[in-house]
Amino acid sequence: MLMPAWRWGFDSRNVARVLAGVLLLAAVQAASADVSFKTTRIKVGPHPLKVEVAASDPERSQGLMYREKLGKDDGMLFIFDEPGYHSMWMKHTLIPLSVAFLDADGRILNILDMEPRTLDTHIAAGPARYAIETNKGWFGEKRIKAGDRVTGLPKLP
């Protein structure tokens, strides 16, 4: 037999809020499960990197959120519709990442490290058409810096 929430000492408004939060989280996770990414291989300087491609708004919005791990030489390539001072944040991202912003020619504009579960904004140093996210420190380990080139990028629309 179920007892009313008030008999357990719960305020029914708090129970409703908790249920609404659970339903919202389930909806977000269900929506994110619908996003699937194509993969490709690119070269960052001379180093190969397997990337999932985020080229649409839903793909870019999902990014690497809720992932618990990322392969050693794996990442995500974001393709932006227009050049701009695009930015990244990590609110629902569970793993530390580095991001490189690139211009339309594949030249790295800047590289930034990002901490998981933060609202810090990480902004391109110039008009970017691409961004690459990978494990934090990957670019540094490979001695990749601003000005280096990325090849094998998909053509821009």
Topology, please?
Elements: H1 12-33, E1 38-44, E2 47-54, H2 57-62, E3 74-84, E4 87-88, E5 97-102, E6 108-114, E7 122-123, E8 128-135, H3 138-141, E9 150-151
Parallel strand pairs: 2-3
Antiparallel strand pairs: 1-2, 1-9, 3-8, 4-7, 5-6, 5-8
Count of β-strands:
9
Low-confidence stretches: none
Distance between the termini: 60 Å
Give the rounded overall mean pLDDT.
Answer: 88
Strand content: 25-35%
Structural class: alpha+beta
Largest sheet: 7 strands, mixed
Percent of residues in helices comes to: 10-25%
Strand-and-helix sequence, N→C? HEEHEEEEEEHE
Tell me the Rg in angstroms: 19 Å
Count of helical stretches: 3
Q: How would you sum up the global shape?
A: globular
Oligomerization category of the chains in this entry: single chain
Across the major sheet, the strand order is: 6-5-8-3-2-1-9
